[in-house]
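Archive maintenance. Older records in this collection stored only the sequence; we are now back-filling the structure field for every entry so that each record is complete. The fields below show one back-filled record exactly as it appears after the update. Entries are processed alphabetically, and Methylcrotonoyl-CoA carboxylase is next in the queue.

ARCHIVE ENTRY
Title: Methylcrotonoyl-CoA carboxylase
Organism field: Glacieibacterium arshaanense
Length field: 662
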Amino acid sequence: MHKLLIANRGEIARRIIRTAHRMGIDTVALYSDADAGAPHVREATQAVHIGASPATESYLDAAKILAAAKASGADAVHPGYGFLSENAVFAESVIKAGLIWVGPSPAAMKAMGLKDTAKAVMKKAGVPITPGYQGTDQSLVRLERAAAQIGYPLLIKAVAGGGGKGMRSVNDAAAFAENLLSCQREGAASFGNPGVLLEKLITRPRHVEVQVFADKHGNVVHLFERDCSLQRRHQKVIEEAPAPGLSDNLRNMLGVAACAAATAIRYEGAGTVEFILDLDNTDKAGDPAFYFMEMNTRLQVEHPVTECITGYDLVEWQLRVARGEMLPAHQDAIQVTGHAVEARFYAEDPETGFLPSTGTLKTLRFPAGQGIRIDSGVEQGSEISPYYDPMIAKVITHGADRSAAIDRLVAALDGCVVEGVKTNRAFLARLVDHAAFRAGDIDTGFIARHGDDLATTEAAKPTLIALAALALAREGTTTSAEGLFARLGNWRLNLPYERHIDLFGADNVAQTVVLRDEAGKQRLDGPGFRMLATSRWLDDVNFEAELDGMLHRAVVLVGADSVEVRVGARVHRFARRALAADARGLASDARVAAPMPGRVLALDVAVGDSVAVGDRLLVLEAMKMEHRLSAKLAGTIAAVHVAAGDQVADGMLLVEIEGIPA
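Back-filled structure field:
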């Protein structure tokens, strides 16, 4: 292997490039129109343009990728994850072209490619599977009959699905048909296959997966497990390794079952065997029952946490196995050191149901330090476009134990600074700092169950108010400043120092802090508190203050209109001036706009209809997922500006509601 073509983009392309170059292998990057200036294009040995921005015209076009491999002189192809990484037909075409395929055999991919056939293979191999229906008869009548036999609640899953797409939970027969059609549409749009399977819904499940590796010489090992239970809409949000709270016996059984699954299909390369743990079904020892869910025949997004605890480079293992080498380590040599946690840092808005946020990353800064790893496909100035997954970075931390890794992750998230798009940063910080997560009390319903805790910003405490006021008072006086007034601090000729700072919270009411000089320090008089302080900027975002003898450090972001204070998982944003009603969003509830470019998949209202808060107005398809837009205001539909099937632009007005008078 001398030149590796990476049939992917963004973060995973950069990840593969780093390891390949370290191993002395040249790389070829691919790029669409939208990615012409992307970092992975610049970092590869060479790059080939393969088409327009939509993935179907570039990264999903197998013919263009093979042509690029031939034109560039590549002798191997690494698919990364997503796109064509689990497409057995693409793997076959790569091998037929005389190239090295960095992945499992097409036969193994086919065996695991569809959830229904995969479960049949696992059942034969003695790996436990979840009760359900995996039949080929996909008629509504047959599926409804199967659902009744399984019993509610149940899960509908696209047989070719992944990443949470094409999956719905159904609580009763009345909701079955609508959810079935939605899954079939999403499966067809995302995977070209509308087929579904049905499964008993495990009501309190944990999602635990095992990293396996196999070579061409019959060796199979596992690199322990990861817990991926913290999910939203079946998409992973937080991953950690090893999984907390498992007994040694259960940990061993999961590893053995995963290796048996890989052996059954003569697997080669990196793979992940995913299991569901049923917390409501335990044995005498207290260990939950576990069931095979699916096998991902590729490297996983969350592979860095496994690398952190084992010390192995999994991309290097992939490349060595693809070259025909034996696995770099035997099972007894693979040990766990410490604990690692990963957060998926996305351009999405938690306040609008986590809809993706597109735009230019005007500012992008990541933290650095011991035990912190950032895997990102973007840089300052990059565009988060509507064409691809809106991930900004994976923020990964490693510590001596789980508590240390979590502490480090909270601090690392505080150090992520982004301007230009909405992000889930504060949500992630609250999530990993939640007392129940720290205690290991987790299952896949965690985020929904603790939604109020995770969505609500707590009332500003005196410490946060004081830090915001002090930061504004010292705005522009960083340690590197050389100006006269920066050096003199608060002193002014012939005038006693006094400053009034107004901070406005969500209620738009001013909280006034008065700062005065007192004995070489500053006296702060604020709403319900009085304290003596000294403060300084450590750099342009890190701020330090001593408040009544207690030292506090925070990340403080000062903008023209607001100041944001981050202390641990606590974050508070203050406006610097009163906001008009429209700016506070009081009028915007009546005007429903498109949160991103997309297509109107379904329209549920017409002019004159009455709606209550929470009623579905329409379904927007964007980034190959369905996004429900609901009424935030009770009233009557005054205007509808779109029809089903319409393409809409970001910010386009869709529906107007005339509110009910108070």
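Update note: Confidence is low (pLDDT under 50) at residues 479-494, 581-587. The two ends are 72 Å apart (CA to CA).
Entry marked complete.
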